[in-house]
Amino acid sequence: MKPLALLTLTTTLLLCQSGPGSAVFANLASSKWTHDAGDPPGSESVMLREDPKTGAMELLVRYPAGHVFSPHWHTANERMILLEGRMSLRNGESEKFLEPGGYAYLPAKEVQRLACVSKTRCTFYVHWDGKLDFHPAK
Fold this sequence. Notes:
Elements: H1 3-15, E1 17-19, E2 22-23, E3 44-50, E4 57-63, E5 72-73, E6 78-84, E7 87-91, E8 94-98, E9 103-106, E10 113-116, E11 122-128, E12 135-136
Antiparallel strand pairs: 1-2, 3-4, 4-11, 5-12, 6-9, 6-11, 7-8, 7-10
């Protein structure tokens, strides 16, 4: 992992709190990764924290190489920091790429077209600032 990605993730995780005085710490190698029913094949996640009042949540997620997310949008804003792999993000006709340590802010209700375009899996930190929902898009 590149130093910038590690520093960014460490700083973010140290600032996350699940309640008063409850710090959250996680390392990629020692976290308990789970695959929940309904998740895409080969994907895994680690729940870092969820705000019971707002529904905001933070996770570590990973998807296999070549995974393409179906076009969708959320009612909450989304932030992500790529830790491993290479991601493609399409916005209209524009395509951007995230490399390890890269950051993306995806505004609420904006259609997301994402793909893991590396030959290795894509692992990233993701945060939604409100309750997570999923709305398919064209």
